[in-house]
Design a protein that fits this description.
Elements: H1 30-37, E1 44-47, E2 52-55, H2 73-82, H3 91-133, H4 135-143, H5 148-184, H6 200-225, H7 231-236
Antiparallel strand pairs: 1-2
Helix pairs in contact: 3-6, 5-6
């Protein structure tokens, strides 16, 4: 006798063979008995063509789902657990990685901020001192008839040329280092990926901010240059 749920039904043809003596039990082969035993866990159907019992698909014991990003893993886990589905994730490891990324990003921005401030101060000081070192030459230009506006523009152009040249040299150096770094990590990257790169937006931002800073710093020095007296050149001679 097999105890099954009331919703489970199994239909099969039975042939009763005549017996010489009345018996209260029946014999069945081991394969059929084993399959009927599985009726408690899985559905069984009788195939008329093969004259055999066939086990139906049990279903999937588990499944794998991919989150769109690391931030979506924890909400997905909570969603499935509320529905009674046990989920195995690496939420703790993901939290550690996110915390590490946050602190590394903070350190990166601190270093970047200090570097930008230091670079801006150095550029401003160099442009200002460059004009101060050329006081005599600028005074001679004033003596030759150049107006204060022309001296002002000359100083601005000089600062822009110096700063733009510095950015170009820095980008060339970055390109060389990026190529070396990407080559070293090539085994860990997919096709078309790069470990170290700069977008065109970043390059334009660097150029724009550097030129603006150069104009501001040069304007201060240029304003002082416009006040030079042509007589200073004659006194120097």
């Amino acid at each position: 006798m097999w105890k099954c749920s009331r919703s489970t039904k199994l239909s099969m043809p039975i042939t009763i063979l005549p017996m010489k003596e009345a018996v209260s039990f029946a014999f069945m082969d081991a394969e059929t008995a084993g399959k009927l035993t599985l009726l408690r866990q899985r559905n069984i159907r009788y195939d008329e063509n093969t004259k055999k019992f066939l086990l139906s698909r049990r279903g999937y014991a588990s499944f794998r789902i991919y989150a769109k990003s690391l931030e979506d893993v924890a909400p997905l886990k909570q969603f499935f657990e509320k529905q009674g589905i046990k989920v195995s994730t690496q939420v703790e490891r993901i939290h550690e990685v996110k915390e590490l990324d946050k602190y590394l990003t903070l350190i990166f921005w601190l270093i970047t901020t200090v570097g930008v401030i230091g670079g801006a101060a150095t550029l401003s000081a160099n442009l200002y001192s460059s004009v101060e070192r050329k006081r005599k030459e600028l005074s001679i230009l004033r003596l030759l008839g150049l107006s204060g506006g022309m001296i002002f523009r000359f100083t601005i152009y000089q600062g822009m040329v110096i700063s733009t040249s510095g950015v170009v040299i820095a980008l060339v150096f970055f390109g060389i280092m990026a190529t070396i770094i990407n080559t070293l990590f090539q085994a860990h990257l997919r096709s078309g990926e790069s470990f170290c790169t700069l977008n065109i937006i970043h390059i334009l931002l660097v150029f724009t901010s550097t030129i603006i800073l150069a104009i501001i710093a040069s304007s201060i020095a240029a304003y002082q240059a416009t006040k030079l007296d042509p007589a200073d050149a004659m006194r120097g001679e």
